[in-house]
Amino acid sequence: MSPRSRKARVEDVHDLALSMPYAELAPGSHKPVYQVAGKSFVFFRTPRPDAFDPETGERYDDVIVFWVDPIEKDGIVLDESNPFFTTPHFNGHPSVLLRGSRIGELTRDEVAEVVQDAWLARASKRRAAEWLAAHPPH
Question: The domain 3-127: what is its CATH number?
Fold first, then answer.
């Protein structure tokens, strides 16, 4: 297994988000929020009542939110082969959620694609076009 296709780690989300052009860590947040031009594209969420363990009722404290293309959201969360999910709070919102404790179910390459897509969903059209021109799909 190559280093890029190894199991993903939460640290990869941080590294990948900051590696995107013009990406910044938002100041003053309790948990990391990654932004491009002041728009969040990946953020680590505080425990909320809508994301909880169905058996214990305990709120998840490791939820990561990724912006997505609204057209692709249903396909992502309905695909039972991946660990992404949503909650009623995010109905109609172009994002998917992932528990940090389940990130190892994905490869680093898969997480890179999700982070890049999140950045593309929030970056300006010009910046997105420049990045896509420099990183053509395989």
Answer: 3.90.1150.30
Helix, strand, or coil (residue 39): strand
What tens digit of pLDDT does each residue of 78-117 get?
Answer: 999 999 999 999 989 999 999 999 999 999 999 999 999 9
Specify the 3-state DSSP secondary structure of 1.
coil
Overall pTM > 0.70:
yes
DSSP labels for 42-88? EEEPPP-TTSB-TTT-PBPS-EEEEE--HHHHHHHHH-TTS--B--G
State the sign of the Cα–Cα–Cα–Cα dihedral 38, 15, 64, 58: negative
Phi (first) and psi of residue 9, to 5 degrees = -130, 155
Domain boundaries, the chain: 3-127
The DSSP annotation for 87-129 comes to: -GGGTTSSEEEEEGGGGGGSBHHHHHHHHHHHHHHHS-HHHHH
Q: Which helix (H) or strand (E) holds 134?
A: helix 125-134
